[in-house]
Design goal:
heterodimer, A: mainly beta, 7-stranded mixed β-sheet, 4-stranded antiparallel β-sheet, globular, B: mainly beta, 6-stranded mixed β-sheet, 12 strands, 0% helix
């Protein structure tokens, strides 16, 4: 059982480049989220989704886009990378309010 | 205002002793859930324990227990009989309201726990 799969694990981008971080889950969870974790800090919510076709902004959405065309996939797009987006990105999924989030392994992104 | 506050940036504990990691939260919603996650140096997020706002008893999972004091809005994690493998960053997190918020967790800044042999 794969759980939540994120790709890539590491990425270096130049300022201004765009890219998509992939996230897929095989647990049929309705709820999916993207977080970023900066050094020495907790996770901050970027965008989240309550089901296919429905997304909403979290705490730090600027510079990122998401879409949810299927239950399984929730990609995160960086439109024009900036050094401030250097961070570790986590995708997570959950089945309801009272159960834990399942996290992907994380993507370490460096923007130079 | 910070919704989740973890006031201990770093903690040390001797192997085999118990340790308490503090977490206070702020919400006006009567329905919420509190979670603790462990993040070892390898970086993955590992779920440890959950407490619901309506749960009458404190949650326990093996060596982990949650000291839930609703009136004080605190949800401290207690690790008994610490092991070297418990050295990691620990995060307290909260979800509020209804199922539509199941994807919206708020995290504290974490506590780094170091277990000494």
């Amino acid at each position: 059982n794969a759980g939540v799969t994120q790709t890539p694990k590491f990425q270096v981008l130049k300022t201004g480049q765009s890219m998509t971080l992939q996230c897929a889950q095989d647990m049929n969870h309705e709820y999916m989220s993207w977080y970023r974790q900066d050094p020495g800090m907790g996770l901050r919510l970027i965008h989240y989704s309550v089901g296919a076709g429905i997304t909403d902004q979290g705490e730090v959405p600027n510079g990122y886009n998401v879409s949810r065309s299927t239950t399984e996939d929730f990609p995160l797009r960086l439109l024009s990378a900036a050094p401030s987006q250097t961070s570790v990105y986590f995708c997570a999924s959950s089945s309801d309010l009272n159960t834990e989030a399942f996290f992907g392994q994380g993507t370490r992104l460096t923007v130079v | 205002a910070q919704k989740i506050t973890q006031t201990q940036p770093g903690m040390f504990v001797q192997e085999k002793e118990a340790v308490t990691l503090d977490c206070t939260y702020d919400t006006s919603d009567p329905s919420y859930g509190l979670f603790w996650y462990k993040q070892p140096s390898s970086g993955e997020m590992i779920f440890l324990i959950y407490q619901g706002s309506y749960d009458q008893q404190n949650a326990t999972e093996g060596r982990y227990s949650l000291n839930f004091q609703k009136a004080r809005k605190s949800a401290n994690l207690v690790i008994s009989a610490s092991q070297l493998g418990d050295s990691a960053m620990y995060f307290c997190a909260m979800r509020e309201g209804y199922n539509t918020n199941a994807g919206k967790s708020t995290f504290g800044d974490g506590t780094t726990l170091t277990v000494k042999p």
